[in-house]
Amino acid sequence: MSKKQYKIIFISGLAVVVLFWAFSQTQKKILSPELITAEKKSEVANIFVTIITDDTILRLISHRGQSLYDMLTLAKENNQIKFSGKMYPGLGFFVTDIGTLHSGDGKNLLYYINGKEATVGVSAYALKDGDIVEWKLE
Fold it and tell me: What residue stretches are annotated with the Transcobalamin-like C-terminal domain (predicted)?
C-alpha cells in the first residue's frame, strides 16, 4: 500500500469516528415507559410543611398542590392536630379553632405563610415545599 492509500484510509476512519460522535450527541433522549412513569410520579412528589400553633410545632408531609385545608383535615384524621371551623359557600373553610387557639372575645384566628399574612382562605391556598404556616389570634 502506498502512503496515499494510508492517508485516505486514515482520513476516512477519522471522518467516520467524528460523524459517529456528532450523531450520538444529537440523538433525542428516548425514555422507556418506566422512566416516564417515574418522571410523572416526581411531579406529584411529597413536600414538607411546618404548622405552628400556640403550643405546637408540627412537621407534616403533603403533596404538591394540595390545599392547606386538605392537609389539615388529613392531619386531624391521623390525630396529629385538632381544628374546627365552618365552611362558607363560595368563600371556603374558615378555621375558628386550632390546637389551643380559639377565636372569640374580639379576636380572630389568622394564618401566616412564611411570615406573611395569608391572602386566601385555607381551602384555596395550595401548599409549596418548605411552607411554614403559623396561626395567630389577632
Answer: 65-138
pLDDT greater at residue 38 or residue 63:
63
Q: Identify residue 121 by its one-letter amino acid code.
A: G
**Domain limits of the chain?**
3-30, 43-137
Cβ contacts of 65 within 8 Å, gap of 6 or more:
44, 126, 127
Return the exposure string of 50-68: e unless at least 16 CB atoms fall within 10 Å of the residue's CB, then b: ebbbeeeeeebebeeebbb
Give the pLDDT confidence of 64-87 residue by residue, as tens digits. 889 999 999 999 999 999 999 999
CATH number of 43-137: 2.170.130.30
Beta bridge partners of 65: none
- Position of cell 390546637? 99
What stretch of H or E contains 63? strand 57-63
